[in-house]
C-alpha cells in the first residue's frame, strides 16, 4: 500500500489566466499555473530541481498593471492577478530572444527550440553573416564528459547545481563580461586541474547539450546517436547503501548514458561519479 505523507495544506489562490479562472496552491509560479492549464509557455533556463534564475527570458508573460513583461518561471501567482500568456507583446519578445540566441549559439541539440522558432516565426539569419557567434571548439579534456560552449546560453543552471543548490563543489562559475562571458573553472584551466568531482550533475540540468556525456558526444559525431532507438530502465545504484535511483539509457544493447529521476526523494536527479559514470563494468564482455 502506498502511503502519502501528510503536510500542512496550502491555501488555494484564484486568478485569471488568459481570460479563464485559474486555481493553484499558494507559492506556485505563473509557469506552474500555465502547465497545470496545459499552456505551452516556452522556457530554457527553468529547471524542476533548481531555483529560477530568470536568465533566458523566453517565458515572459503580461500581467495586468505591470510596466514590463514578467518571467513566468519565477513570478509567484497572486490572488486576483490577471495574466495573459499569448499577447502580441509577449510573442514579439519571445521571438527576439529566440532570434538572438539562435544567431549566436548552436541550438541544434536543444529540445523544442526548432518548434518554437517556427511557432514564433523567428528568423535568426536576419542579422546577416556578420552577426557575432561563439564558434568555440568543444573542450574534450577528460574521458567522462565534454564541454561544448558553442551551445551554451549562459543559463547558470550548471553553476547553481555545482554550487550551493546541490553539489557545493563550486568548481565552475561565470568568467568574463558581456559577449565574452563564459562558464569556466578557476583560471580557465583544464577540468582535470579543477575542483570538479565529476558528479555530472551539471550535465543533468544543462538544457542545450553544452554539457554532455563523452559517449553521447562521440556517437553524435559519428552519426549513430538515436534517442528514438533507446530504452530507459530505472534501477537502484549498487555502489553504496544510499539507494539512489539510476535511469539507464540503452542503445544497441549498450548503456550510453545514465540519468536520475528528478522526482526521486533520495537524489532529486543528482548522482555521484560512480552512479553517473561507473557503468562500464556492466557491459564488459571479457
UniProtKB/TrEMBL annotation:
Every 4Fe-4S Mo/W bis-MGD-type domain range: 230-286
InterPro entries the record matches: 2Fe-2S_ferredoxin-like_sf (IPR036010), 2Fe-2S_ferredoxin-type (IPR001041), 4Fe4S_Fe-S-bd (IPR017896), 4Fe4S_Fe_S_CS (IPR017900), Mopterin_OxRdtase_4Fe-4S_dom (IPR006963), MopterinOxRdtase_cofactor_BS (IPR027467), PSI_iron-sulfur_center (IPR050157)
Keyword tags: 4Fe-4S, Iron, Iron-sulfur, Metal-binding
Protein origin, superkingdom: Bacteria
Coiled coil: none
Database matches in SUPFAM superfamilies: 2Fe-2S ferredoxin-like, 4Fe-4S ferredoxins, Formate dehydrogenase/DMSO reductase, domains 1-3
PROSITE patterns: 2FE2S_FER_2, 4FE4S_FER_1, 4FE4S_FER_2, 4FE4S_MOW_BIS_MGD, MOLYBDOPTERIN_PROK_1
This protein's record includes keyword Isomerase: no
Gene3D superfamilies recorded: 3.10.20.740, 3.30.70.20, ADC-like domains
Domain 2Fe-2S ferredoxin-type as annotated: residue spans: 11-89
4Fe-4S ferredoxin-type domain residues: 143-162, 188-216
Database matches in Pfam families: Fer2_4 (PF13510), Fer4_7 (PF12838), Molybdop_Fe4S4 (PF04879)
SMART domains from the UniProt entry: Molybdop_Fe4S4
PANTHER family: HYDROGENASE SUBUNIT, PHOTOSYSTEM I IRON-SULFUR CENTER-RELATED
Name this protein carries in UniProt: 2Fe-2S iron-sulfur cluster-binding protein
Organism: Streptomyces iakyrus
Amino acid at each position: 500500500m502506498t502511503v502519502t505523507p501528510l503536510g500542512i495544506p496550502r491555501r488555494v489562490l484564484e486568478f485569471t489566466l488568459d481570460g479563464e479562472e485559474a486555481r493553484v496552491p499558494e507559492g506556485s509560479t505563473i509557469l506552474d499555473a500555465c502547465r497545470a492549464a496545459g499552456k505551452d509557455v516556452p522556457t530554457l533556463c527553468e529547471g524542476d530541481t533548481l531555483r529560477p534564475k530568470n536568465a533566458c527570458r523566453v517565458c515572459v508573460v503580461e500581467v495586468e498593471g505591470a510596466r514590463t513583461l514578467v518571467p513566468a518561471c519565477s513570478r509567484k501567482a497572486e490572488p486576483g492577478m490577471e495574466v495573459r500568456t499569448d499577447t502580441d507583446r509577449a510573442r514579439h519578445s519571445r521571438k527576439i530572444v529566440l532570434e538572438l540566441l539562435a544567431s549566436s549559439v548552436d541550438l541544434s541539440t536543444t529540445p523544442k527550440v526548432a518548434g518554437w522558432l517556427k511557432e514564433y516565426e523567428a528568423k535568426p539569419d536576419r542579422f546577416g553573416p556578420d552577426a557575432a557567434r561563439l564558434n568555440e571548439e568543444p573542450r574534450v579534456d577528460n574521458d567522462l564528459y565534454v564541454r561544448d560552449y558553442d551551445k551554451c546560453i549562459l543559463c547558470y543552471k550548471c553553476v547553481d547545481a555545482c554550487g550551493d543548490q546541490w553539489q557545493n563543489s563550486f568548481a565552475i562559475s561565470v568568467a568574463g563580461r558581456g559577449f565574452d562571458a563564459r562558464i569556466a573553472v578557476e583560471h580557465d584551466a583544464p577540468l582535470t586541474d579543477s575542483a570538479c568531482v565529476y558528479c555530472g550533475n551539471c550535465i543533468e540540468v544543462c538544457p542545450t547539450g553544452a554539457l554532455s556525456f563523452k559517449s553521447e558526444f562521440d556517437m553524435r559525431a559519428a552519426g549513430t546517436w538515436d534517442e528514438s532507438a533507446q530504452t530507459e530502465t530505472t534501477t537502484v545504484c549498487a555502489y553504496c547503501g544510499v539507494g539512489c535511483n539510476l535511469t539507464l539509457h540503452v542503445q544497441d544493447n549498450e548503456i550510453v548514458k545514465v540519468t536520475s529521476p528528478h522526482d526521486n526523494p533520495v537524489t532529486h536527479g543528482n548522482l555521484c561519479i560512480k552512479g553517473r559514470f561507473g557503468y562500464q563494468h556492466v557491459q564488459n564482455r571479457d
